[in-house]
C-alpha cells in the first residue's frame, strides 16, 4: 500500500525529511492534512485565512492530491489508513504539549489498526527540542548559554528537495474550507511565497537587520514568523542561507532563530510552562478584576487605550494578524503592568489573532514581559508607552499608519495627542489609565509579593 504523509506544521515539499521517508517507502504518497476543530475553532480570521491559503498552495504542489479532512486526528488518521490500505504514516515530530499527547493516541490507534507505524522524522526546529543539554545532561534555563550549546551542536544541513513525488489522491470527502474574507492584504501563502519573501529580505534587508530590527515604522524584519510557524519554510534553510550570506545582520538573524529553538526547548522540558509561570516567584501577585478592569482590557484588545503607539500595534494585530517584536513587548507590558492583568489574558488574545501565533514563542514572550519566564525582564522594568513611541517610531509614521484618528497630526507630536494645541483629535479616546500612577501600583504589588 501507499504511505500517508500527514502534514501538520510542515506545509512544504522542500527540506522535509518526513516526506522523503514517506516517498522512500515506495508505494506512493497520500498527502493528508487534518483540520482539527480544537485548533481551527480557536483561530481568528487572519489565522484561518493564512492556513487555508497555505493548504491551497500545498494542494497545488501535490498535483491536487492533498486530502483535507475535518475531525479529531485520533479518528481521521486511522480512517484514512483503512481507506487507502496504507502501510505507514509519516510525520515530523510535534514537540508541543497537545501534539505530544495527540501523537501518542494516534500511535496507539494505528497500532490497533494492524500495526501500522507512525514514523517520525525531523521537527519544526533547526535543532530539535531536547537535543541541546548542559554537560551534566540537564536542560538550559537561560538563553545565552543555550545559544552556545546550540552553536556547538550544529544545525544539520537542509534535506534535499525531491525531484518528484508519486502523489496518490485518496478521494472521498474534502473538508478544505473556503478562506474567510478579510479586507486587508495577508502575507502571500505557501512554500514558494515564503522562499521568495525570504530571498528578497536576504538580498535587500538582511545587512541592515542588526541595526534596524527594532523599528516598527521601517519594514526591517523578515516576516518569516508565520511561514516558520506553519512550516512553509524550515529554519534550517534560513540558517544555512543566512550564514552563506554572512555579516553582522546575518549573525543577529541566526540568533533570533536560535531564540525560537530555545523557547521550544523550554516548553519541551516544561510543558506546564505553556500556561503556568515558569518561575513561581511572583505567585500571589494581585491582579485587577471587576467590570472597570474588564472594560480596560476590552479597550486594550480593540486598540483604544488612548496611548497612540500601543493602540497602533493592537490595531495592526487585528488588521493583519501580525505585530512587530518591540510592539509585542510594549503592548504586553501595558496589559500586565499598567492594567494589572495576568499575562495569560493577553497571551490568549495574541494566539487567536497572530498568523504566527505559536505556543512556545508567544507564551514565553509573555512570560518574559511578565517577569515569570526563563531569563525574564525583571518585573520592576515598566515600559513607558510615550517614551517607547518616541524612541522606536521617531517620526510617528507607524502611529499614523494604524490610527486614522491621528493622521492629521504631524511628526512625533502624534505620541502625545493630549498636548496638542487644539486638544485631542476627534474620535481618539482619552487615556484609560494614568501611566505614572499605575507604574507605582505595579511596583507596590511587586514589592508585596517579594516581601
Ligand atoms: P524577525 O525579526 O525577522 O525574526 C526572524 C525569526 O526569528 C522570526 O520569524 C521568529 O521565528 C524568530 N524570532 C524573532 N524574535 C523572536 C523571539 N523574541 N522569540 C522567539 N523567536 C523569535 N513569535 C512567533 O513566532 N510567534 C508568536 O506567537 C510570538 N509571540 C510573541 C509574543 C510576545 C509578547 C513577544 C514579546 C514576542 C513574540 N514572538 C512571537 C517573537 C517575535 O516577536 C516574532 O517572532 C517576530 O516579531 C516575528 O516577526 P519577523 O518574522 O519579522 O521577525
TrEMBL record:
This protein's UniProt keywords: Chromophore, FAD, Flavoprotein, Lyase
Lineage, opening ranks: Bacteria, Bacillati, Actinomycetota, Actinomycetes, Kineosporiales
Designated name of the protein: Deoxyribodipyrimidine photo-lyase
Cofactor(s), names only, from the UniProt record: FAD
Residues holding FAD: 209, 221-225, 253, 256-263, 356-358
GO biological process: nucleobase-containing compound metabolic process; response to light stimulus; response to stress
Provenance organism: Pseudokineococcus lusitanus
Family annotation (Pfam families): DNA_photolyase, FAD_binding_7
Free-text comment on the cofactor: Binds 1 FAD per subunit.
Gene Ontology MF terms: deoxyribodipyrimidine photo-lyase activity; DNA binding; FAD binding
InterPro entries given in the database record: Crypto/Photolyase_FAD-like_sf, Crypto/Photolyase_N_sf, Cryptochr/Photolyase_FAD-bd, Cryptochrome/DNA_photolyase_1, DNA_photolyase_1_CS_C, DNA_photolyase_N, Rossmann-like_a/b/a_fold
Family to which this protein belongs: Belongs to the DNA photolyase family.
Ranges of residues in domain Photolyase/cryptochrome alpha/beta: 1-126
Amino acid at each position: 500500500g501507499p504511505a500517508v504523509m500527514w502534514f501538520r506544521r510542515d506545509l512544504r515539499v522542500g527540506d522535509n525529511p518526513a516526506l522523503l521517508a514517506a516517498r522512500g517507502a515506495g508505494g506512493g504518497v497520500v498527502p493528508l492534512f487534518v483540520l482539527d476543530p480544537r485548533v481551527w475553532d480557536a483561530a481568528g480570521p487572519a489565522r484561518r485565512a493564512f492556513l487555508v491559503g497555505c493548504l491551497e498552495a500545498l494542494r497545488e504542489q501535490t498535483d491536487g492530491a492533498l486530502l483535507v479532512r475535518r475531525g479529531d486526528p485520533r479518528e481521521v488518521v486511522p480512517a484514512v489508513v483503512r481507506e487507502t490500505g496504507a502501510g505507514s504514516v509519516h510525520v515530523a515530530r510535534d514537540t508541543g504539549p497537545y501534539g505530544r499527547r495527540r501523537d501518542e493516541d494516534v500511535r496507539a490507534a494505528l497500532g490497533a489498526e494492524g500495526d501500522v507505524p507512525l514514523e517520525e522524522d525531523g521537527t519544526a526546529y533547526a535543532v530539535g527540542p531536547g537535543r541541546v543539554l548542559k554537560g551534566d545532561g540537564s536542560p538550559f534555563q537561560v538563553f545565552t548559554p543555550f545559544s552556545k550549546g546550540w552553536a556547538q551542536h550544529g544545525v544539520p544541513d537542509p534535506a534535499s528537495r525531491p525531484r518528484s513525488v508519486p502523489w496518490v489522491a485518496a478521494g472521498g470527502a474534502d473538508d478544505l474550507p473556503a478562506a474567510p474574507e478579510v479586507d486587508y492584504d495577508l502575507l502571500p501563502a505557501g512554500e514558494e511565497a515564503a522562499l521568495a519573501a525570504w530571498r528578497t529580505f536576504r538580498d535587500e534587508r538582511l545587512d541592515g537587520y542588526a541595526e534596524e530590527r527594532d523599528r516598527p515604522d521601517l519594514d526591517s524584519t523578515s516576516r518569516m514568523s508565520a511561514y516558520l510557524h506553519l512550516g512553509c519554510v524550515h529554519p534550517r534553510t534560513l540558517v544555512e542561507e543566512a550564514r552563506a550570506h554572512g555579516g553582522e545582520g546575518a549573525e543577529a538573524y541566526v540568533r533570533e532563530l536560535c531564540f525560537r529553538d530555545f523557547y521550544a526547548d523550554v516548553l519541551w522540558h516544561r510543558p506546564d510552562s505553556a500556561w503556568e509561570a515558569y518561575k513561581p516567584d511572583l505567585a500571589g501577585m494581585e491582579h485587577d478584576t471587576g467590570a472597570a478592569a474588564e472594560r480596560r482590557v476590552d479597550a486594550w484588545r480593540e486598540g483604544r487605550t488612548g496611548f497612540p503607539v500601543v493602540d497602533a500595534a493592537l490595531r495592526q494585530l487585528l488588521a493583519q494578524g501580525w505585530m512587530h517584536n518591540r510592539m509585542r513587548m510594549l503592548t504586553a507590558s501595558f496589559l500586565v503592568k499598567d492594567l494589572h492583568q495576568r499575562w495569560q489574558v493577553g497571551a490568549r488574545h495574541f494566539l487567536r489573532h497572530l498568523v504566527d501565533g505559536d505556543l512556545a514563542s508567544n507564551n514565553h514572550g509573555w512570560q518574559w514581559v511578565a517577569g515569570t519566564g526563563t531569563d525574564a525582564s525583571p518585573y520592576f522594568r515598566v515600559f513607558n508607552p510615550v517614551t517607547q513611541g518616541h524612541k522606536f517610531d521617531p517620526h510617528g509614521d507607524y502611529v499614523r499608519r494604524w490610527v486614522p484618528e491621528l493622521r492629521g497630526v504631524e511628526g512625533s507630536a502624534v505620541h502625545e495627542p493630549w498636548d496638542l494645541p487644539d486638544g485631542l483629535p476627534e474620535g481618539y479616546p482619552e487615556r484609560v489609565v494614568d501611566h505614572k500612577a499605575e507604574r507605582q501600583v505595579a511596583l507596590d504589588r511587586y514589592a508585596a509579593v517579594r516581601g
